[in-house]
Amino acid sequence: MPRQKKITGYKMKLKKGDLVRVIAGKDKGRDGKILVADRKKNRVIVEGINMITKHQKPNAMHPQGGLIKKEAAIHVSNVMYLHNGVPTKIGYKLETAVKDGKNVTVKKRIAKKTGEVID
Question: Which CATH entry fits the domain spanning 19-87: 2.70.50.50, 1.10.287.600, 2.30.30.30, 2.60.40.1220?
Answer without folding.
Answer: 2.30.30.30
